[in-house]
């Protein structure tokens, strides 16, 4: 984007450039290679939130070596607790935090950020939406915040904000989550179930396109203003490339092109002048006069994998058979683990259960014959013992109980141990099957960023330490897939 002076301003957002992703213990699709001498200087690096496909310590350490001159590091105020870590491992990058709706000047570019307006809690509550403007044009980067645009009040607010920031043209950049359809495909137990889940995902996609784009009574809908372009990018998370094909052929049942086409169909039917397009990896798009004016390849960016290699094939009868085992085998100090787990159940999970109200704790306990029970396996897949912990109306605190009841949730102590140490997170069990339970909300609870920012800090620091020691994400990810060899 041009500054007021006419000089260009270039921002690198959420740089995850490693071949593997820490959190989801997967692979990046497509893999890329960068030549910054051709890509050119970067004025600022923006990190929208703490998930490791956005905040990748391995990528940031490499960029710290490669980017000259040093860029400014822009961070949402929600990551202020990581300031010491960033200063320690990225010492030459000046840090600027952006607070809610407090614009800052980046030398002829105004930047502001705001949190999602959705009422329900999520593991991406720390994600901030970034709005850049030079007074004539604006770019809004939604990242993983995913504004509830189906709400007319939200649509009005965003439409007014974009219109004021970019009176001449506006670009709305959104990341659509590919993992929902991917997980439905992986979780299918046979070929027929995969086909059914794919049809269901496509129907949900059509409904989502309708809710996101149709006018639905919004007075200041951004899509109703000429000069607005909506660009859709994907997450690009699959299985590690070291795992043999044809996994890629069943991982992406919904394409970015499908999303863009359905949204454009709704916009056309509604008479909305917005132009909607998918942006494929390695593609450079120029927007001028409120329209996409040029498509080309990014100079200095080599894309190693073709889109054709992940074209969905519904006839491939490939079923996931992930082990029922802890992420890391081996026996540990069970009594020490017990003390830590009981403490975390009490200090983190109980307040979460009471406050979340999905469902309310009184209904959870009533539905569970008066209790909510968590079972822990101590040991590993070769040998283990179990201990149960429960709350009930007579004891609204977790305590160890006899193992006669049916658990709502079941975990390996080793996995929880790793979570507490910063060596696992909400998504790390992607390559494992939980040992039991009808839901796994304790595990999800540990992924809520504001409730557990100390665990996030441990995780980010651990991987920065690994990166400066010469390790990469593959050194963390691939051992967890050893069962595939």
Helix content: 25-40%
User: What low-confidence regions span 5 or more consecutive residues with pLDDT below 50?
Assistant: none
Give the overall pLDDT as a whole number: 93
Give the overall shape. Answer: globular
Biggest sheet overview: 7 strands, mixed
* Tally of separate domains: 2
Spatially, the strands of the biggest sheet line up as 8-9-10-11-12-13-15
Q: Under CATH, the topology of the largest domain is which?
A: Metallo-beta-lactamase, Chain A
User: Which range does the strand content fall in?
Assistant: 15-25%
Distance between the termini: 47 Å
Radius of gyration: 23 Å
* CATH class group of the largest domain: Alpha Beta
Number of helices: 14
Q: Specify the structural class.
A: alpha/beta
Number of strands: 23
CATH architecture of the largest domain: 4-Layer Sandwich
What order do the helices and strands come in, and which of them pair?
Layout: E1 11-13, E2 20-21, E3 26-28, E4 32-34, H1 36-39, E5 44-46, H2 57-66, E6 72-76, H3 83-89, E7 95-98, E8 104-105, E9 110-115, E10 128-133, E11 137-141, H4 152-165, E12 169-175, H5 179-187, H6 191-213, E13 228-233, E14 237-238, H7 248-251, H8 256-270, E15 275-278, E16 283-288, E17 291-297, E18 301-303, H9 334-356, H10 361-367, E19 371-380, E20 383-392, E21 395-401, E22 409-412, H11 413-421, E23 436-437, H12 441-445, H13 453-468, H14 473-477
Parallel strand pairs: 1-5, 5-6, 6-7, 11-12, 12-13, 13-15, 19-22
Antiparallel strand pairs: 2-3, 3-14, 4-18, 8-9, 9-10, 10-11, 16-17, 19-20, 20-21, 22-23
């Amino acid at each position: 984007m041009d500054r007021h002076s006419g000089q260009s301003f270039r921002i690198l957002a959420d740089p995850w450039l490693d071949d593997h992703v820490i959190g989801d213990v997967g692979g990046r699709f497509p893999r890329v290679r960068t030549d910054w001498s051709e890509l050119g200087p970067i004025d600022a690096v923006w990190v929208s939130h703490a998930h490791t496909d956005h905040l990748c310590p391995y990528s940031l350490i490499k960029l710290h070596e490669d980017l000259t001159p040093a860029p400014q590091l822009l961070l949402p105020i929600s990551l202020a607790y990581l300031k010491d870590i960033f200063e320690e491992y990225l010492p030459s990058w000046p840090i600027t935090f952006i607070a809610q709706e407090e614009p800052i000047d980046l030398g002829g570019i105004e930047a502001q950020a705001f949190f999602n307006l959705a009422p329900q809690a999520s593991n991406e509550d720390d994600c901030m939406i970034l709005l850049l403007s030079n007074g004539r044009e604006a770019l809004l980067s939604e990242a993983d915040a995913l504004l509830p645009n189906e709400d007319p009040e939200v649509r009005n607010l965003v439409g007014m904000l974009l219109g004021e920031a970019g009176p001449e043209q506006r670009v709305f950049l959104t990341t659509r989550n590919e993992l929902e359809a991917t997980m439905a495909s992986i979780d299918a137990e046979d070929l027929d179930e995969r086909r059914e889940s794919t049809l269901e995902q496509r129907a949900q996609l059509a409904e989502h396109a309708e809710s996101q784009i149709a006018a639905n009574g919004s007075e200041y809908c951004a899509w109703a203003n000429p000069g607005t372009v909506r660009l859709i990018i994907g997450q690009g998370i699959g299985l590690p490339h070291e795992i043999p094909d044809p996994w890629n052929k069943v991982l992406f049942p919904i394409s970015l092109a499908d999303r863009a086409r359905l949204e454009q169909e709704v916009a056309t039917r509604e008479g909305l002048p917005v132009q909607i397009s998918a942006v494929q990896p390695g593609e450079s798009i120029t927007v001028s006069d409120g329209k996409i004016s040029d498509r080309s390849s990014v100079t200095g960016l080599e894309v190693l994998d073709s889109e054709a290699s992940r074209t969905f094939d519904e006839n491939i009868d490939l079923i996931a058979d992930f082990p029922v085992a802890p992420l890391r085998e081996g026996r540990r100090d069970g009594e020490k683990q017990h003390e830590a787990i009981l403490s975390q159940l009490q200090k983190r999970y109980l307040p979460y259960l009471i406050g979340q109200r999905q469902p309310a704790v009184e209904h959870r306990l009533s539905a569970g014959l008066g209790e909510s029970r968590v079972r822990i396996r101590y040991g590993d897949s070769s040998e283990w013992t179990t201990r149960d912990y429960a709350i009930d109306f007579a004891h609204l605190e977790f305590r160890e109980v006899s193992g006669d009841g049916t658990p709502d949730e079941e975990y390996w102590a080793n996995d929880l141990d790793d979570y507490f140490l910063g060596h696992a997170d909400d998504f790390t069990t992607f390559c494992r099957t939980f040992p039991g339970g009808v839901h796994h909300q304790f595990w999800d609870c540990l992924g809520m960023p504001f409730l557990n920012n100390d665990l996030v800090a441990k995780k980010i620091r651990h991987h920065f330490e690994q990166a400066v020691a010469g390790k990469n994400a593959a050194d963390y990810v691939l051992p967890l897939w050893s069962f595939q060899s």
